[in-house]
Amino acid sequence: MATQDQSHPADGPTPQLPEWADPEVAEDRLDAQGVSRRGLIGRAGLFGAGFLGASALGMTGAGVAAAAESDDAVQASSRPGQDGPPAKFVYLVGDHHVHTVYSHDAKYGFAQSAAQGRQFGLDWIVYTEHANFGHANAGGAEREHAEILKARQENPRVLIFQGLEWYVPAAEHATIMVAPGRNEVELLRQFELTFDAKLNKFDVGAVGDPKTPANEAKAVEAIRWLGQRRREGFVEDVLVLANHPSRLGIVSPHELRAWHDADPSIFLGFEGAPGSQANADPAWVKYREGQSGPGTFQRGEYQNAPSPQSWPRYPIESYRTFGGFDWMTATVGGMWDALLSEGRLWSVTSNSDNHRTMFDTYADGDYPPGKGFDDLGSKPLPKDTGVPQPGSDFWPGQFSRTHVGVERFGYRDVMNGLRAGRVWVDHGQLLDGLDVWMVADNGRSEPVTLGGRLPLSANRGATLYIRVTTASRPNYHGVVPTLAHVDVITGTVTGKSRDADAWQAPDARVTKRIDVAGRTGTYTLKVQLPRRNKPYYVRLRGSDGNRHGVGPFGARVDPAGPIQHPNNDGDPWRDIWFYSNPIFVDVKSSHWGD
């Protein structure tokens, strides 16, 4: 991997510590969330300038080689057991799916969007403009980059990435996330001109369309191409995450597997929860019904039905969200578990997909006469009307958050944390903090955390530790959320499926439901896992307990999971959940030593 030229102007300024991590910032200047996070980072021993590390944009010299070797590994400390998780990870809050005037269907300038992300507590943000001829050929990507450089200067305490929302050949959309560096813009331009479905007409055909296999192969080629650009040092780093995978039903299970198989160091997973979570907010529903009469409003704008392009084996309920989360994630024993049961490190995220925030006062700006997006490469800046405008999104960080475990505050560190799977997500600021780790019961193993793999002899036990820090302040709806339960979900790892379109994992189930209602502050839950003779994984979820019901595979699998809300009755603030990435347990044969 090429070393980063730290003096190159495209890199932008060296980021400053977030205020909550900066000892120069007095505690009385922090909000309650910042105070809580300062306590968490102090416990991890990373408070202060050391959190920035040698370089906030990447590492040079020997550090680059070390980072490359450990991208997919979880580093462990020598502190097994209840004292603490492996290493010293701090979870940074981010959003990898945000739009501005450089997308044809959004309306905010960078100054507005970045300021809102900072206000709502984001540490990192990725601008993912829709691929478009105006973006690639009319100077949109380059002018956007100039805006990003300015935003990095004006917001040095937030890591601001330039990315792309890719129209995936024969499928839906995906985030392309690129590390700052000399070629970050050129990579995006080359990629969208070569591999974007909208620009190159790699369409989603009806089921059985003879063009579909070639278009699906083009998506695989695109992911491999990105991996090659990373390996040859054209860019410092790049990764891909699928967006709103169940929204239209056009992303088949075999496509998901093919993207991951193409390069698992590049393609990491999918949005566990889509954006547009305000689409069923009571105020928005009332406004829309006043404009056009009764409608069908669902969280995430998941209000579709199967089409000729949809994969036919998905059940009808897959076109809705459950507790605001995509059906693939929310269904215990469903698509996510099917992928995990193959031993794949498959991450989930939660993002705003911000285009138009509910009831801000900005309206679209006016194009010059005879000009449009493809002519200009961007939309005109919005105009403040002073009158609330309609929209189904929340601001970045206002409702949906993706938490990524890092050891330092920097761009590459966030990407390394995503790649290692150190990820948990929540809605509505349900939790201030979550640490999860597991140790073998032989007394000699080192702990592993989210995304990690614990080696274990057959028929040996393991202990799971869950350290929860409950919400300590009102969320952005003015309510202090409370955690009602933590669910431990396990599944057997059976190896690669013979059916590339399989979407069920029969062995996955909720194995323990822990009632934590009324508990506040920071506490640690200890879960003794039974002895097994096959590899398995463990993942977590929890909620405020307001809306739940028996899962689609019955109470034996999921007695009280998230539910689909009725049309127009999906107040997002009254149904909030968290999910964690898995920890894998690699059970060895009985003759394998402890």
Automatic annotation (TrEMBL):
<dbReference type="InterPro" id="IPR016195">
    <property type="entry name" value="Pol/histidinol_Pase-like"/>
</dbReference>
<dbReference type="InterPro" id="IPR006311">
    <property type="entry name" value="TAT_signal"/>
</dbReference>
<feature type="region of interest" description="Disordered">
    <location>
        <begin position="1"/>
        <end position="22"/>
    </location>
</feature>
<protein>
    <submittedName>
        <fullName>Histidinol-phosphatase</fullName>
    </submittedName>
</protein>
